[in-house]
Write the C-alpha cells for this entry.
Amino acid sequence: MLKESFEAFKWRGASYFGINKFKLSILDYNKAIKLNSKNSDGEIYLLRGDSYLYSNKFKKAIADYNKALTILKNRDVSYLSEIYFNIGNSYYDLGDKKNALKNYSKAIELDSTHANAYWYRGFIYMRLDKKAEAISDAIKCRDLGDRSLYDELVALKWIISQ
C-alpha cells in the first residue's frame, strides 16, 4: 500500500508538471519522497529537479539532479547525459558559466550526439569570445541537425559560410 501511495504522488506530480503547475508537482514529489524512506527511486529526484528548474529554483534543482545521478549511476549514458545537461542549464541560469561548461562537457562526453549540449556550450564559448571552441561546437551542432548557432557565428563573421 505504501508503494502505491508513493507511485500515486510521483505520477500526480508528473501530471502537474505537464500542465505547468510546478509548485503542486514539487509538493507531490516531496510527499512521495517522504513515503519512500529508502530514497531508492532516483527518478523522483530527477522529476523534482525538473520542477525546481522550471520554478527558477536552480540550486535546489542542482541538488536534486546530483542526488538522482548518485542513485541512477548505472543507467544508460544518454539518460545520464540529459541529467548533466540539466545541471548545466541550472548553472547557466545562475550565471555560473564555468560549472555550466563543465556539465555540458560531461553531457557531451557521455553522449556525443547531444546537439543541445553542443549548442549551449558553444553559445557560452561565443559569449566568452573563445572563437575556436565556439566554432567547433557550432559545426558539430550543425552536423547533428541544428544550424542556429552555426548561422549566428556566420552572421558574426566568425565562420565563412560554405
Q: What stands out?
A: The CA atoms of residues 88 and 100 lie 4 Å apart.
